[in-house]
Structure formats: C-alpha cells, structure tokens
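Table 4 source record.
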Amino acid sequence: MALACTESIQLGADLVEDGDIEIHYTDTIAIPGKTVSANPPPTFRNSATFNSRTFLVGTLNSPEFGLSSSTTYFSATRLSVLPDLDDAVIDSIVMAIPLDTIGSYGDTTEVHELNLFQLVDPFILESSEDTLFSDLELAYHDTPLSTITTRINARDSISYYNPIADTIVRIIPQLRFKMDTAFWSPVLRDSLINETDTSIIEYVKGFALESSNATNSMFGINLQDEASAIVEIYYTVGDTMKELYLMDLGVYRHSFFNQDFTGSEVEAVIDQDGQDEFLYLQSMAGPNVELDLSFIDMLPNEILNKAVIEFTVPEPLDINAPINQILASYPLEDGKLAIIEDVSTRFLNFVFGGNLQYVQKNNGNFYYKYEINITNHVINIVNGEIDNKRLILSGLAKSERPNQSKIFGPSHPEFPVLLKLITTKP
C-alpha cells in the first residue's frame, strides 16, 4: 500500500537506542461502497427490559428516498383495579397520547388529519420471546373511532378544561381524542371483560393511529412505559361527585413502516455495484450503506495506530435533516449484524464518532460530515478474529427516527469516502 506521506519524530531518545519513530499517515484511500437494502428493524420486544420511547406517525416524500410512511399500533390495559361504576354516569372519555420531539421531521407546518381506528384482532403477545419487526402490518376497521385535524407541535403545551378541577389546565404536548362512551361502557361495567388485562385486550382489540393526508410530515408519539399515554374516563357518582379513572396505553406497541422507492434516486442505485457517486442512508426500514474493507489485505506490516473513515454530506434542506448519529456493524454467518468493537454506547461520540459535524473544507465552503473510528475493527480482521470485510452503516435507533442522509459516495469527484490511516513501523 502506498502511503501519502511519511515523517520522523523524536520520542524518548534517551530511553531507546534509536530514537527515530517513523509515522506513516495517509488520507487518500477511497473506500468502495454501495447503498443496500436493510432488514426490517425490530419495533417491540415482549420483554421487561424493552422500553423504546418514540413511535412514528405520518408520511415522507422526497425525490431521493421516495415514499415512506408509518402507522403505529398500541393496546389498552388497566392501571389499577376498576372502581364500581354500575351506578355512575360516564361523562366523557378522552384518549391522551403525548407527543415526542425526536420524531418531528419534514414539513412541521403541515396539518394532519389523524384517525384512530380499532384493530380487527386483539393486539396481544403470548410469548415472552416475541419480537415484532417493522414489516408487520396489523388489520384495522375502516371507520375511525375518533378523528382530529391539527398541526403537530411537540414543544408547546396545550390547555383543556378539567371537569374534576373545574378549571382550565395546561399539560404537556399531546393528542387528545374524544371517544364514544358507548365503546368503553362494556369495559367499565362488565366484570368478565375488565377482570384481567388480557380480557380487556380481547374485547377492545387495540388501536391504529395514522395520518390520512400527510404528504411530507412525520411526528413521534411517546409510548414509553413511563409516558403518560392514557385513557381518561370522567364519571359522576350520585349527583355531584366528579371522579376520574385512568387506563394505560402501550403495554404492547408497534410501528409498521411502508417504504416505496419507486421513481426515487434510491431505486436507481440500491443493491447495485458501481452506482456510488452518492450513498443513501435512511432510518425506519430504509436503506443502509455497505463499505468494502478489502484495503485491509494491502496494509503494510506496520502497527496500526488509527483508522478513520470520513463521509461528506451535501447541504441538506431545513425540513429534511440528516441522521444525527450513525453506527457501524458487520454481518455474522447467520445474517444478523454485530456492532463493531469501536462502538461504545457509553462513549459513542468520543471513541467511535459517527455524529454529524458541520465543518469547513479546504475549498472554503462548509459541509456536514461523519467520521467513524474503526481501528479496533480493522485490527480484529487482521488478527483473524473477524472474517467478513463488509462494514454496514445504519442510523442509531432506526425504528424511532425518521431522518435520512444523502452522502457523497466513493466515486464522487470532489468528496469521495476516504480512509485515514496512521501507522508506525514495529
């Protein structure tokens, strides 16, 4: 391998006989790569340790990535034993779903028509090993249970009248669907239905939330275990006693991603060799980027001190921000991906990198870029601990993010994907 430049420095000359340590540095090795299809990411695991937060709703449409949409499903269960409501009057029922800023993407000024549907089959998982993936679509009835039309603002609190407090209160940003009391009445009054969480889900089935008219706007809802996603049941006991009972939302939750690349730039290059002037990286179930690390076979017999790959990103549109953090993995024999050793979740940005940076290039213009440190991964390949020389790049938490990145690829004339190496002679 020809190195771009060499230099010699003095280090501890009084401690070693030959104080010259020769450092080799290169930043001119272009890395082959291509845009590749990705397996559907997991969206839910039936495990006590699973606690994903952001679930996406809406549609994105761009000439680069085509059409991407997300529908989110969730179930309802008890927070506590139901009170005796036989003689109570059910005044109103509201489903409150908190918004999440992480999922906001595209045109945030767009007005969404949001429909809440009932699922056809009960949304319940029997096995503790069950994992749901984003290509699973759940059937729901055609007629919505409730509809609201609104512009999504996940940062501003809202106000509503609380009949218990008999006053206007301000609460966290959320969607509030007014529901038909007749739909919930059997759940509240029939002990055979509300006896267990399972019996409730068997009756209620579950819900689908979708935006029917979004063209280029997506948002997130917070269904984390600790989130205040609830059904508020307001009722009156006797003539005047106002009471509130809460039901929980999201014990089971899942998002279905539909990716349609028809007519897009991605369709023309995905899974094809030689189509690499640009690379396309997308969250949800969108494409990953695959890099070929065959350069490792040509490394000189020297000590590898550092190996970094640099990617440059064109100036993005304000409404379509690039992915904030990318990860690197390698394929295992069973087809699954394993995160490379250099990725440490505790020190992700400091050790591995992969975060989006805004930098000035030598032409004086500013660009976005990613740098990823793959030093330990290269050493593991050289030492024979890893056989596969394919490196897969993906976005952090793909199922919870809507972002997408168009990247200058290996054959781009000005900003190809480059490898930076620092080595020393043994």
